[in-house]
Design brief:
The protein contains 24 helices and 11 strands. The protein is an alpha+beta fold and 696 residues long. Helix 2 (19-28) crosses helix 4 (47-59) and helix 11 packs antiparallel against helix 15.
């Protein structure tokens, strides 16, 4: 919007008007009854526009005030085109489409013109925007499985999607993703429905409202749609052709019967409001007598003007549109944009074959379809490049995952082998220690038995030394037991009997190995989370790069066509320059000299710029335009004109430089005046006549 506003305000005051703007200027400055009377004879198709401009020019009548509504309408159209791209595709498509629309030279041409065509384009874009939710037309990505890409992130206020980042979520359940299996919701998981919204991003569906509330909401949408279509068609009757484009959109989208019924009622109401204007405009069709029957080349000229006009920009736009149509990624966008740029021009061309009425300005409301399709083509191209990059990135990521899995498996295998070795070594140690204990116990038991027998056989004095020896043997056995008890906890069995020591040692070893494996699994999960976040950051960066690349491409197109934009700000960009013509005639004429306008429409020079032509007399004017209910007034007849020229020694004739116009007043002057010289100015011929004989 800011770009369109800047382009619209840049060079808005050209210092001159051209013929069509002069009609707006003089009609809007009349009173409402005078406007009503004039619309019965001329310019009925622009009547609503004149009424809307009346209060603005009543506040301040200037060229800037005359063109400012068109600038604001172009800004609104740009915003609506961007909104359509966001709704039908994704935000970056809307951004690109809006910028493409804003930098098109023909858009800025009509944005700086005091006529109704920019307002008609805004109304048509608004009606199309209202049609999309009312008809239920939504984003549907053209993938093979019919799925909608779902990864989105917010970047600089716009949700941008990294196509190459569309992968299953990584983490603890990533093994199923690597195995190619879909992991469904577990038992007890609450599943909520999702619907596709902007950019194909799923959003939790709202609770279903009551049928009566839905019906009232849909009814208000269709009523708003019908009202916008009716007002747009009243601004210019040919805007009603958008109804045919919208009908084809519904047909392509396979709309249901309630949608067709709502659209039919809204369209019928809009057509009924426009029928009286069509009847009046048909009686004023002589205003288009200057047009000729079009040839097929005129259709191509419209394509060049809307998609170019530079040859390079035209070729790139057509290539992008072809890419968007050949492999449509956003079918709903194609269903809306393609009929809009094809159906109205074809219908107007067919109508012009019967009654000439074909001109590009009548089709300006169809232009938004071109930037929408071109932006979709750019998105398709970016997606193709991104998918190729994703193959390499995915390969590297898969190899990294496999390496992590192999390392984890190796750790688990080494842990298991080490555990078994530890169990085996511990078992042998336990068996050795227990064997020693058993042997020590056996020796002790045998020693006590020997001592008992010896005590019985030997005298008491001999037994005392044996008692000390017995105490040493007992101390040795106790020390051995303590040593065994101290050794056994080291292998996890404690001072247990030998029969239960080996299984417990194996269990303890397995627990230690499992703890080590759990630590390894935790490290692997942490690495997966870090990798996911890194991929998300990389995806956002790539999305930002894609959006910036598209904006840069639009900027390059603007720079390439910058001379055309400069030309649009110059007076020569229009068919004529009324300010320059009025100044030239004012310098050549003297006060009081008679001036004739042939035909009367050339009087617009004096109406719009009266100050330079305040000296000469408009000798042929019978009744001014506001009083006669006409645009340029009513001239007197030839007899009255000769009578008024009776005492004049010279006269000036401002004639239209058109070969089809028959010079009526020149024929009246030829009898008594002769042509002294003639000047060809842009759009007119300025002829100076002097009397051939004495004034009578």
């Amino acid at each position: 919007m800011a770009v369109m506003l800047w382009l619209g305000l840049w060079g808005l005051d050209r210092g001159t008007m051209w013929r069509d703007e002069s009609a707006t200027y003089q009609m809007a400055r009349r009173t409402l009854p005078q406007i009503r009377d004039a619309l019965g004879t001329v310019d009925a198709v622009h009547g609503l526009y004149y009424v809307l401009m009346h209060p603005l020019l009543a506040l301040h009548s200037s060229e800037v005030t005359l063109r400012l509504p068109s600038v604001l309408a172009a800004v609104a159209t740009t915003a609506l085109v961007a909104a359509l791209g966001c709704r039908l595709a994704r935000p970056r498509v809307g951004l690109w489409a809006g910028l493409l629309y804003a930098v098109t030279p023909v858009v800025t041409h009509y944005a700086q013109e005091g006529r109704s065509y920019a307002l008609v384009a805004a109304g048509a874009a608004w009606a199309t925007y209202l049609l999309v939710p009312a008809a239920g037309v939504g984003p549907r990505a053209g993938r093979a499985d019919g799925s909608v890409p779902g990864s989105a992130s917010l970047t600089s206020g716009f949700a941008v999607e990294a196509d190459w980042a569309d992968r299953p979520a990584r983490g603890p359940a990533s093994v199923a993703g690597l195995a190619g299996r879909d992991v469904g919701p577990g038992p007890g998981t609450r599943v909520r429905s999702a619907v596709s919204v902007r950019g194909g991003v799923p959003r939790l569906a709202r609770a279903a409202s009551a049928p009566g509330q839905r019906g009232r909401a849909t009814g208000w949408r269709w009523a708003a749609y019908g009202g916008v279509v009716a007002v747009t068609a009243l601004l210019h009757v040919f805007a009603a052709l958008m109804l045919a484009a919208h009908a084809l959109t519904l047909l392509i989208s396979r709309a249901r019967r309630p949608v067709w019924q709502g659209w039919g009622i809204a369209a019928a109401g809009a057509v009924a409001a426009v029928v009286p204007l069509v009847v009046v405009a048909r009686r004023q069709s002589a205003q288009l007598a200057w047009m000729r029957r079009p040839t097929p080349g005129r259709l191509w000229a419209v394509v060049e003007e809307f998609a170019g006009p530079s040859a390079l920009v035209l070729a790139v736009n057509l290539l992008l549109i072809t890419l968007a149509l050949a492999r449509p990624r956003w079918r709903s966008l194609t269903a809306v944009a393609l009929p809009l740029i094809c159906v109205p021009p074809v219908l107007l061309f067919a109508l012009a074959l019967h009654r000439p009425c074909f001109h590009e300005r009548y089709l300006l409301f169809t232009l938004p379809g071109i930037p929408l399709l071109a932006a979709a083509g750019v998105d398709r191209l970016v997606a193709a490049v991104g998918s190729r990059l994703a193959v390499g990135v995915a390969g590297r990521q898969v190899r990294a995952v496999v390496r992590r899995r192999v390392r984890a498996a190796a750790r688990r295998l080494v842990g298991a082998v080490v555990g078994r070795l530890v169990v085996a070594v511990a078992g042998r140690q336990v068996r050795t220690v227990v064997g020693r204990q058993i042997r020590a116990l056996a020796v002790g038991v045998a020693g006590r038995r020997v001592q008992t027998v010896a005590a019985r056989l030997l005298p008491a004095k001999v037994g005392r030394p044996r008692a000390a020896s017995r105490r040493r043997v007992a101390l040795g056995i106790d020390g051995l037991a303590r040593a065994v008890a101290a050794r056994l906890p080291a292998v996890g069995v404690g001072a247990l009997p030998g029969a239960a020591a080996a299984p417990l040692a194996r269990a303890a070893t397995r627990r230690r190995a499992a703890a080590r494996v759990d630590r390894f699994a935790g490290v692997d999960r942490l690495a997966g989370v870090v990798a996911d976040r890194r991929r998300a950051v990389v995806g956002r960066r790539r999305a930002v790069v894609a959006v910036a690349a598209g904006v840069l491409a639009v900027g390059c197109a603007f720079v390439w066509q910058f001379p055309l934009h400069q030309l649009e700000r110059q007076p020569l960009s229009r068919q004529d320059d009324l300010a320059a013509l009025a100044a030239a005639v004012g310098r050549l004429t003297r006060p009081g000299e008679p001036v004739l306008y042939d035909p009367p429409k050339e009087r617009r020079i004096a109406i719009v710029y009266p100050r330079p032509l305040a000296g000469p007399r408009d000798i042929a004017l019978g009744t001014p335009g506001p009083a006669s209910g006409t645009l340029y007034g009513v001239d007197v007849g030839p007899a009255e004109l000769l009578r008024r020229l009776g005492g004049a020694r010279s006269a000036w004739l401002i004639a239209a430089d058109e070969p089809r116009v028959r010079p009526v007043k020149a024929a009246v002057l030829t009898g008594r005046f002769r042509l002294a010289y003639s000047l060809c100015l842009p759009g007119i011929r300025l002829e100076h006549y002097v009397r051939a004989g004495p004034a009578g």
